[in-house]
Known about the structure:
Layout: H1 3-12, H2 43-52, E1 69-80, E2 83-91, E3 102-103, E4 106-108, H3 116-128, E5 135-140, E6 144-146, E7 151-160, E8 174-181, H4 182-186, E9 191-195, E10 201-207, E11 210-212, H5 214-226, E12 240-241
Parallel strand pairs: 1-7, 9-12
Antiparallel strand pairs: 1-2, 1-4, 2-3, 2-8, 5-7, 6-7, 9-10, 10-11
Amino acid sequence: MTAAQHSEGERNGSRPAPGPAPDGGHRSGKGAREAAPDITTPEWLASLAHAGRRMPIPAAMRPPSSGGRRSAVLILFGEGEHGPDVLLIQRNSGLRRHSGQPAFPGGSFELDDEGPEDCAVREAVEETGVDPLGIELLGRLPELFIPHSGFRVAPVLAWWREPSAVHAADTGEVADVVRVPVGELADPANRIRARHPNGSTGPAFRVRGMLVWGFTAAILHRLLVLGGWERPWLDGDDAEPVPLPVPGSDAGGGGRRSAPSSHGPPAS
């Protein structure tokens, strides 16, 4: 089902009774409706969605039993001229949180959000101007936790069935919107190990003029492995320090509710 149909169903109270997911499991979470793989969803993405539900979570990113700020991000896969790609944003410098960092579209729950799907799609529309009618919701990855900022993050996986024009719609928070080919993420020449401000290290990517690190890079790394795209890369002990933007270096940063992007210990 499309993101727009999901939201409309929530508003009208027309939620379907829980039933088996395509893999024989259950649809879980209030209002969550996973789209059954069909001719609109590529086989590679349907398989990734199936594997993603069981994605292993590093101990450092497992949510606590209670507490934390609820949030969601949209992991939107499409197919472009260079094959499968994923939508990323780059935040403005000078924001209070995640200044200057690449991220998935997303942010904190608002009162009208019925669940992670509503939150993730609403934020993506606000940040990138994407048309929700072209988004097919496929399900969620396991919930993650970012100790540094206290976010509980629900990653929502989706298929960009009918791509639309995107841009930095929220200019106060978003500097750029980029479709990054999976092939570029998997290219060993674009992969490094980054040393984060808290001293931890994790995988990172140099793509499209961005350094993608931390939380976002951790998820991308796991998805490359689950999707069978990962290629051998030099993942040694040497780590490149992450350059941090100077606070206040960009006048565009008031920041309403930054999406989780890079802070916190990522997956190794």
